[in-house]
Write a structure and sequence with these properties.
This protein has four helices and no strands. The protein is mainly alpha-helical. The chain is flat, with a radius of gyration of 19 Å. The mean pLDDT is about 85.
Length: about 100
């Protein structure tokens, strides 16, 4: 195990970031599962929807733990995906 010297604030922020990363594939899977089941509600579509939801849950957990254990962590990953350098450059030009 690596030497982890993060304080409680950093750990809680990483946990929230991991939850956000988990929710992305989970919510997509939940929406697709709901569409599949509610379009034709019967036992077969229910089984397909449950399997798809479990698959989305597994993918979300795997992705979140992989990014959490990486060198950068979840907060760095989320900040990279949420950044908009093109818009920031455009707004800075307007201010000058």
């Amino acid at each position: 195990m690596k030497n982890d010297t993060r304080n409680i604030f950093e750990k809680s922020a990483e946990l929230v970031g991991g939850l956000q990363i988990f929710l992305s594939p989970f919510l997509i899977g939940a929406a697709i599962s709901a569409i599949i089941y509610f379009s034709n509600p019967n036992n077969f579509t229910l089984v397909i929807a449950i399997v798809l939801l479990l698959l989305a849950t597994g993918i979300g957990i795997k992705l979140a733990t992989k990014i959490y254990r990486s060198k950068e962590g979840t907060i760095d990953f989320i900040s990279k995906t949420d950044s908009t350098p093109e818009i920031d450059k455009f707004l800075n030009k307007e201010k000058k």
